Amino acid sequence: MKLNDPFSFYLEGTNGKGVILIHGLTGIPAEMKFIARALNRKGYTIYAPLLAGHGIDHQTLKKSTWQDWLDGIVESARVFSSEVDSVYTAGICVGGKLGMLAAQCLPDTIRATAIYSPCFQFDGWNTPWLYKFSPALPMMVRLFPSWRDKTYPETESLGIKDERLRNFMQGAEAKGVIDEFPAVSLVEMQRLGKALKRELKRVKTPTLILHAEKDDLSHPRNAIAIAKHLVAPHELHWIEDSYHMIHVDRQRDKVADLTASFFERYYVDAA
């Protein structure tokens, strides 16, 4: 499969099933490598594309919208569907929302989806004080043009409980990661969240929701809200020993096992 940037990656599988892994806001596909390898060992073909506007710098990211991100994932699913017999998506936070909406756009292509650590507002137990004002960002950006240039720093923990893994991620996968969140990109994240909320009662794609009990950025209420309003078949599971980045942290193998098990059930049901 042809890749169009230096950050996307592809792993050939053996079972005919393929998973599109979708990274988070300001991240790159490399953050999905742990979960990619685990799913690939279970036979899945993996495609991890780079979201529109990512992998370069703040200015490039600020020019992209949530619709640009979604359009890229929808196109990725269309291309990927020619490589495998069935397509699934799994993504962290923003990536998970994009996967769910992509399934709405391509209901006959994407068979099931998984969302890790959903976040509509930054309201976790260790959220920096500055993030608590993020709900006001759309108004501030609209009223004060200078706010378009503001950025929000990454949290000290990087959403990873395990210090060894945190240090590894800082050192090994830094190239291409944008180290601060542009205010306008956080506004786009909020708009994406609102778009997903509007669709929840119409979503028919089976959905797996995984969330850390001690998520430092996103309170468990975010996951509960999705489960409460989804009419599609869905499961909600709690991850006990991780922070926000559950696909990287201490229980990443559990995340992979739950994801593969969920996808397998809907592969069998559709066969």
State the gist of this model:
The protein has 271 residues and is α/β, with parallel strands linked by helices. Helix content is 38%, strand content 17%.
What does it look like?
With 271 residues, the chain is of the alpha/beta class. The protein is 38% helix and 17% strand. The protein has one domain (9-270): Rossmann fold. It has a 7-stranded mixed β-sheet, sandwiched between helices. Helix 3 (66-80) packs across helix 4. The radius of gyration is 17 Å and the shape is globular. The model has no long low-confidence stretch (mean pLDDT 90).
Through-space gap between termini = 25 Å
- Within CATH, the superfamily carries the name Alpha/Beta hydrolase fold, catalytic domain
The portion of residues assigned to helices is: 25-40%
> Tally the helices: what do you get?
9
CATH topology: Rossmann fold
Top CATH class:
Alpha Beta
- H and E order: EEHEHHEHEHEHEHEHEH
Mean pLDDT: 90
Uncertain parts = none
Strand content bin = 15-25%
DSSP strand count: 9
* Assembly state: single chain
Question: What would you call the structural class?
Answer: alpha/beta
C-alpha geometry: globular
Rounded radius of gyration (Å)? 17 Å
Number of domains: 1
Q: What profile does the largest beta sheet have?
A: 7 strands, mixed
